[in-house]
Amino acid sequence: MRKKRNIQFLVLNTFLLISLVSVLFLYSYQTNTIKSNGNWESSKVKLEKGVMGAYSFITTNRPLAGTHLDLSTYFGYQEIFLKKNLNIESLKFRFKLSTESYFSMYFNKTEDILTGIRISNTPTFPSIFFKSNNGKFLKKTPLNLKKLKNGWNNLQLNFKEKKIEFYLNGNLLTEVKKPFIQGNILGFRGSRSSTLIDNIIVAQNDSSENFKERFDKKGLYSKNSLTILGIFALINIIFYFFSAQRKIILILWVNIGLITGGIGLYYFVNGQYKYSLPWKVRFGDSKVFVHKTGEKISQEIFNTYSTSENKNEKRVMFIGSSQTWGAGASKEELTFIKIFEKKLQTRYPNQNYVCINTGISGEVSANLWNYYKTHWINLKPEFVLINLANNDNNKEHFQENIDKFITQNNQLGIRTILIMEPNDRDDSFLLRNHEALISLANKHKIPLVDMHDFIIRHMDHGFLFWDKVHLTDYGQKIFAEELFKQLENEFDDPKNQLNL
Fold first, then answer.
1. Could you tell me if 416 and 410 are in contact, meaning their C-beta atoms sit under 8 angstroms apart?
2. Which of 165, 200, 205, 207 is nearest to 186 (CA)?
3. Residue 135: φ, ψ to 5°
């Protein structure tokens, strides 16, 4: 009898242990996020004009799937910085890039100057040593980078007295003159394609401990060991004192152990954890987003400008979606429309030009036309600039809706200007809508500004995008400058410029 009970205890505790360890393992992966990690901060969540996926990147487990940092998740171009400064003597980490992928690693900052290195798998954005100022490259030194391994590669930086040595997979890649070190920072910026970073080790040149980052769930097992032991002991006590229910308890935990153990084994072998389990762990966001309908935003825009006391304003209205709204700018005044407005006011100080931003995130041309004819046209703009192409998936309907804007404006003596909305690369869907804009510009003989071509030609002048469509501060700046350059003469005397 005792032998049988001992065997039962052994089986129970074996499957009990399997189930508890499996649950702990799954919980660790489910809750392993940038936010719970605590060492890193994301640049996107600091933007005043927010972009898609910014909070999902820090609060979900996908970016740390398989305990690697993936900078391409949630629309790519993710950028993170270590929260604390380090006195770096040497830095090493491993990375894995897909085809057409690249990443930048920052290691020094003086005022607004970032110094770093870009490692690339694509000739479009070659590997370089760089210095940048507010997103613009001030200096680019090409790196003679041999072909990367298909799997994991290792990069190491050694900070000597007068130089920095870069080693790739154990071979000297390059040496550069050591910049003035005001503050060692550590940061990474990815691209749209898969970019994995892992096993970061920083040796410091003072008495500080080495910094290590593996992007796993730090301290989880030690923090939860008492809970595990408590559950373990409780079930054993129940099993010991309630002999009548031993068989039920044994069968229950064998099944639980098999199920949880199987799930845990699957994710362990698979090595990835890209999707959430059926349950979801919630975190409190530092910002609260309140959803507003396009109709409500449209009405708010109208109310804001309909009460203006300055009746001599010359109004320039921008029609568009999130790019037009300014998504990606760190501050309102750094959006391309605010920069454009400032240039207009500087160039024509006596004209009282005011730019009205009617950009609404996620909207399509049909809805924007309805808002325009219902509300915004009553604001009596002299110019209407339409920056659209991304959200409309039907070229014919898109062309019909834009044609309605132009026809209505021509009847009222309002000047229409079309802008070919830029993306970070050519896309057949986007280009079809651009073709529609070209056709309309030719039909009505109105100005058309190809901002897409301009941005594509300047992609390697700095950091331009936060995702495929939303521009950084530097992207906003060069957008505004080029747009103003191409349209400056259109604003000299609006009445003389109309083609009715």
1. yes
2. 200
3. 95, -15
Terminal-to-terminal C-alpha distance of the chain: 102
Instruction: Give the separation between CA 404 and CA 188, rounded to whole angstroms.
Output: 45
- The residue ranking higher by pLDDT, 66 or 495, is 66
What domains does the chain contain, in order, with CATH numbers? 2-28+219-270 (no CATH), 39-213 (2.60.120.200), 294-497 (3.40.50.1110)
Triad 56, 57, 58: Cα angle to 5°: 95
Distance CA 61, CA 58 (A): 8
The string of pLDDT tens digits covering residues 37-84 is: 889 999 999 999 999 999 999 998 889 987 899 999 999 999 999 998
CB 472 within 8 A of CB 132: no
Q: How big is the chain by its Cα radius of gyration, in Å?
A: 29
Strand partners, 136: 133, 462
pLDDT (0 to 100) of residue 306: 82
Alpha-carbon distance of 241 to 252, in angstroms, equals 17
Q: Please, what is the Cα angle at 158 between 157 and 162, to 5 degrees? A: 125
DSSP letters of 131-176? EEETTEEEEEEE--PPPPPSS-EEEEEEE-SSEEEEEETTEEEEEE
Q: Are 422 and 454 spatial neighbours (Cβ–Cβ below 8 Å)?
A: yes
Q: How confident is the model at residue 290 (pLDDT cuts 50, 70, 90)?
A: very low
Q: Find the DSSP H helices in 31-106.
A: 34-37, 54-59
pLDDT at site 246 = 60
